[in-house]
Amino acid sequence: MTMRRVNAIWQHPLYQTYYRRLEELEQGRPFCRHQMSHLLDTARIACIRSLEAGLGLDREVIYAAAILHDIGKSLQYEKQIPHEAAGRRIAAEILGTLPPDAAFSEAETEMILTAIEGHRRLRPDPQPLERLLYESDKASRTCFSCPAEPQCDWSEEKKNKEILI
């Protein structure tokens, strides 16, 4: 089943620019790359969790948040801007310039942007998509089987040490 709006994000020139730059910066990185496999794993886990919890979130909204959540990572590497803040700004520009037939509503856009901004540190009262993205991002990491895990600078509390859904 095609996701027209999510594919419009993927094909957006600004998305491609930041995605390709991040790909260059992480080339040779032995762990926790932020490429499409991680983004889609996050999206799929979030969709499953949303369905199981009966959240009623639109699948394209979930996928949009997931494929956009690390788009600011290159700016974190190059300019020390937290990637959730840079990502919100970049995502807002991308979402605001999608063709009309692929546009998200204002409410959907704000939900996506809030989820991107909150995906690293969960606020006390997060929105449903925000919590879902935060949890699914963490669950998508396979620290338990990563050969580079001993070199990882994540704290032991952050590392995903078991298979989660």
Textual characterization of the structure:
By secondary structure, the protein is mainly α. The chain has helices at residues 4-11, 13-25, 36-53, 59-68, 73-79, 83-96, 106-117, 128-139. The longest helix has 18 residues, at 36-53. It is globular, with a radius of gyration of 15 Å.
Structural class: mainly alpha
Helix content: 55-70%
Shape: globular
Uncertain runs with pLDDT below 50, 5 residues or more? none
Order of helices and strands: HHHHHHHH
Looking at how many chains there are and whether they match, the oligomeric state comes to: single chain
How many separate helices?
8
List its salient traits.
165 residues; mainly alpha; 8 helices; 0% strand; globular
Write the layout of secondary structure elements.
Layout: H1 4-11, H2 13-25, H3 36-53, H4 59-68, H5 73-79, H6 83-96, H7 106-117, H8 128-139
Helix pairs in contact: 1-4, 3-4, 3-8, 4-7, 5-6, 6-7, 7-8
Brief rundown of the structure:
This protein is mostly helical. Helix content is 57%, strand content 0%.
